[in-house]
Design a protein that fits this description.
Blueprint: H1 3-6, H2 13-24, H3 26-36, H4 38-43, E1 46-50, E2 55-59, H5 74-94, E3 100-111, E4 119-123, H6 126-139, E5 143-152, E6 158-170
Antiparallel strand pairs: 1-2, 2-4, 3-6, 4-5, 5-6
């Protein structure tokens, strides 16, 4: 069997665009959060950009996300950062030609600046997510993919950087 026969086809841009449009729609995003991620709904996270290459998610500075030290609570930052990486993995998984599972296996973070304004976490790891899904479909083995989300203040200053390792694995066929 040739390599091209076993390689998973690249997802159609139309399939990626349809899925991204659901998360970019304010109503669609709220419905998804209420059903699947209620804490993200309560924190008022917003997906500002989502395509096959990158995702940007904002976490507002306000009473819902502020800690006693008058900065954005690290857990609220982690939610936004995770969503910016996870949305890209979800795009890759949900547009795959066969069922693929996704699971977060590790997280690390560095905090460089006190977050006292809205933060935007951006992950530019879409290509890595799609490559990991193609690899697991080719091999049947779990594939780790490390993705970085950088949180910036409105003036562009880096406030925090999160690194998440996701594992993707082709689901086995049930008998």
């Amino acid at each position: 069997m040739s390599d091209t026969a076993t390689a998973a086809p690249a997802p159609s841009s139309a399939a990626v665009d349809r899925l991204a449009a659901r998360l970019l729609s304010p109503l669609g995003l709220r419905a998804y959060f209420v059903a699947k991620l209620p804490l993200a709904f309560m924190a008022r996270l917003r997906v500002k950009e989502l395509n096959a290459h990158q995702c940007a998610v904002t976490v507002p500075y306000g009473w819902r996300t502020t800690n006693p030290f008058k900065s954005t609570y690290f857990a609220a930052q982690a939610m936004a950062a995770e969503l910016s990486t996870g949305a890209l993995v979800m795009l890759a998984v949900q547009t795959a030609p066969a069922p693929v599972a996704m699971l977060i296996v590790s997280m690390g973070a560095t905090f460089e600046r006190k977050a006292t304004e809205t933060l935007t976490f951006t992950c530019q790891g879409g290509e890595a997510a799609f490559a990991a899904v193609r690899q697991t479909l080719d091999t049947g083995e779990g594939v780790p993919v490390e993705m970085e989300a950088v949180g910036r203040l409105p003036d562009g200053t880096v406030a925090a950087t999160f690194t998440f390792t996701w594992s993707v694995k082709k689901r086995s066929a049930r008998a």
